[in-house]
Amino acid sequence: MQAFLSSLVSVLFHGVAYGMILYVISVGLSVTMGLMGFVNLAHGVFAMAGGLLLSTAMGRYGVPFPLALLLAFVVVAVASVVLERLLYSKLYSAGELPQVLFTMGLIFMSIAVARYLYGTQAAPLFLPDYLKGQIPLFGRDFPTFRVVLIIFSGLIVAALWFGVERTRWGAMVRAAVDNRDMAQSVGINTNRLFMLTFALGSGLAGLGGALGSDILPVQSTYPLENLVYFMIVVAVGGLGSLSGPFIAALLIGIADTATKYWLPELGAFLIYAATIAVLLWRPQGLFGVRS
Amino acid sequence: MMHSGGYARGSRIGVLEILPWLVAIAAFFLLPEYLSLGARILIFILFTLSLDLILGYAGIITLGHSVFLGLGAYTAGILSVKAGIHDPFLQLIAGAAIGAGFGAITGAVVLRTKDLTQLMLTLAIAAIMMEVGNKANWLTGGADGLPGVQVNPLFGVFEFDFIGKTGYVYCLVVLFIVWFFVRRMVYSPFGAMLTGIRENTARMHALGAPVYKRLLVVYTISAGIAGIAGVLLTQTTQSVGLNVLSFEIAGDVLVMLILGGVGRIYGAFVGPTVYLIAHDELAKQFPEYWSFGVGFLLLIVVFFARGGILGLIDKISARVRKS
Amino acid sequence: MSALATPALETQMLCKAFGALTVADDINFRLEQGARHALIGPNGAGKTTFVNMLTGALPSSSGRIFMNGEDITTMSQAARTQRGLGRTFQITSLFRSLPALDNVAMGIAEREGVALRMWKPASGYSAIRDEAMSHLEKMGLRDEALTVVRDLPYGKQRLIEIAIALGLKPKALLLDEPAAGVPSIESGRILDVLAELPKDIAILIIEHDMELVFRFAERITVLVQGAVLTEGAPDQIANDQRVRDVYLGEGGHD
């Protein structure tokens, strides 16, 4: 019993850390797909880019960790705006297939770039000394970096929710997700709103990819390998929702960690099966605003 | 333009339609050292053709078409390695039946949904089958796959040799038979009806067509054909690996179809041929640049040439005729 | 036919609400066999919603719908079409990249139940081709039969809508603004076509063009804010002060 409780705490801890990272990466995908109706399979590319930036900035240029994290966020956000203006925006009304193909193209290209930079290896994560080691909590030792990761992600989530619920920008986003034409007719510049929201969502993915490179190793196949999980978070959580994907991400993080711990022979089978069941039961996701 | 068949136009086999078969026969005599690549191309033409039926003709977007190829491939592998059934035709029939059966079951679920949910379901089903292939060691050999598949000589006479002569001819004949069936179907009232669903689903409902049932029929047929392609893949390579179930294959086949041209039978012929020859030449030498090139190509097609290679040829020949 | 015969279409207390918004309010309506009936009302009166409930494109919130006495309230669109309910769309809904002939033949194939046949080429079904051709001829579109629909002027596309509906051999036909968006030079042709439709088909037309309505209809129902305001013969309606107030008084169109 003692041993079980101990492993339960461990599973919950690592599961929550994983779930938090999944959420920080995927939340942008939920909002942009809900807002723009764009099937963006390449969201993982932004997360991988964040991880690559962190590793490269620290390993090759000696940039300190906090600054490198900020860099991952800013550079990915800015780069995504360029992509959005040049390419994504051309396909907003083009239908699903061109969107799927275009974002698959981005995935293939990014895989090539990552392979060029780091070969088939994962990009190394350079943790500063103050994040290495363990800290004692409630009479147990937990890895420092994971604890910080959970707290930091929690702060991001709180800031994001505050932003969407309390600011003018947030009100506009909610209005546009509800009814785009209506939002446009009351004078919201939806184009600019899309662009900013896309930048923020991609920036967060970059930050999440960087922060989570300990949990989701940053290697060239990253955008393809993790695609299913990012998509599941959004589809199960519900398009255009903030809280739905959060719950979905936590559930997936904990369930995935738990199966790996207790039922490794099942792999991700249970999660996929649960996803299919949820989608059949509620096609719009657990907390979706759109059907 | 993109559309062929229907009530207004004739269905006679044109001169150009004989061309692929002449090329395939010529390749057999002129390029004996490339026959195993040739067989692979023929198999992927078959697989791409099956995708074209549901994507190009019926308009269903799937990210999990690899499932049916994989099922066919594993059916042949398991029959040979685990059950000792080495008869090529038995394997072929079993692969087609299992592919089609699984298509009917998953189609019944997937086709009830639409848009993102549909896309996600195809993705999740593919992921689950990958997981099964990986973890059901006792049946599928897990990550190692099933090496050492045996196939009896065709009609007891033609042995599957290692330079791939028999394999090539065998694949060519199977492809020809399936092509003939698919072509008839595309030109039939059923094919016209599928085009109708893709063009305007609301209108098909108003005409009294039970759209869901019709889509289920074509999904099942497509899955069966993909299953056949999977069997051929196992028989010619005499092994099965997990890669037949992977997203890479599901992505590759989409790329091949888009590259050739969606919704036209011969797009499925041109795409895999160009793609696999390029892959054979370039991918081993420049692995990084290869995937960059494929990605870049997709962007080019999406932004400049939605009709793929055949669409481009159409445009150019239309311009030449005008001037 | 006597007024006591079973109507081609009948609704009883038909309602539709989207949340708090009621768009169809207890509609009781009869379309008699062989009728020439018009449904009019200002924009937003719920006319298209009503048609969509009749065809099954939109489920009703409550009430019942009967076709030739049979309760079809919960039937699918396909089942209603197979029982002889045809419609045209307010906004042209065609197979735009297919020839006019295929647009019409597609419906005939469904009616004849050949749409699942996979072996013989579609172009070999000469009975279907001929019938499709005859419907196009009635519309004066013989020369356009092989033209891809998107290359045809809008007025001709509207005629193809009607040809498709006729190809289904409907017993009751719902025409949703058949002349909408058609320049007045071409709308005369549509009027002629409507006048020549077979007498045994019961027709309900929704139209803004009052001239067309009064020339075509023998009976008119006025719908306002989802409810039936009044129903009667054309001259009755034209002289009804309430109708003038809500509808004709506005200036007729739009």
Q: How is this structure best summarized?
A:
The complex is a heterotrimer of chains A (291), B (323) and C (254). Chain B is mainly alpha-helical.
| Series of H and E elements of chain A | HHHHEEHHHHHHHH
How many β-strand stretches of chain A? 2
Distance between the termini of chain A: 45 Å
Write down the overall mean pLDDT of chain A: 89
Give the CA-CA distance, first to last residue of chain B: 19 Å
Number of domains of chain A: 1
* Major beta sheet summary of chain A: 2 strands, antiparallel
* CATH architecture name of chain A: Orthogonal Bundle
Query: Which structural class do the helices and strands of chain A define?
Result: mainly alpha
Low-confidence stretches of chain A: none
Report on the structure:
The complex is a heterotrimer of chains A (291), B (323) and C (254). Chain A has 291 residues and is mainly α. Chain A has helices spanning 2-36, 43-61, 65-86, 96-118, 144-166, 168-178, 180-185, 190-211, 222-225, 227-237, 243-262, 269-281, and strands spanning 134-137, 140-143. Chain A has one domain (10-281): ABC transporter involved in vitamin B12 uptake, BtuC, CATH 1.10.3470. Chain A contains 12 helices and 2 strands; from the N terminus they run H-H-H-H-E-E-H-H-H-H-H-H-H-H. Chain A has a two-stranded antiparallel sheet with strand order 1-2. In chain A, helix 1 packs parallel to helix 5 (144-166) and helix 5 crosses helix 6. Chain B is mainly α and 323 residues long. Chain B has one domain (15-322). Chain B contains 14 helices and 2 strands. Chain B has helices at 15-30, 35-57, 66-81, 88-110, 115-135, 137-140, 165-187, 189-199, 201-206, 211-237, 247-260, 267-283, 287-304, 308-322; strands spanning 146-147, 239-240. By secondary structure, chain C is α/β, with parallel strands linked by helices. Chain C has a domain at 9-93 and 170-250: 3-Layer(aba) Sandwich (Rossmann fold). Chain C contains 9 helices and 10 strands. In chain C, strand 7 (172-176), helix 6 (184-195) and strand 8 (202-206) form a beta-alpha-beta unit. Chain C is globular, with a radius of gyration of 18 Å. The two termini of chain C are 35 Å apart. Chain B binds chain C through residues 1-3, 5-11, 184-185, 187-193, 195-196, 199-200, 202-211, 214, 217, and chain C through 55, 57, 76-82, 87, 89, 93-99, 101-102, 105-107, 109-111, 114-125, 128-129, 132, 145-146, 148, 164, 168.
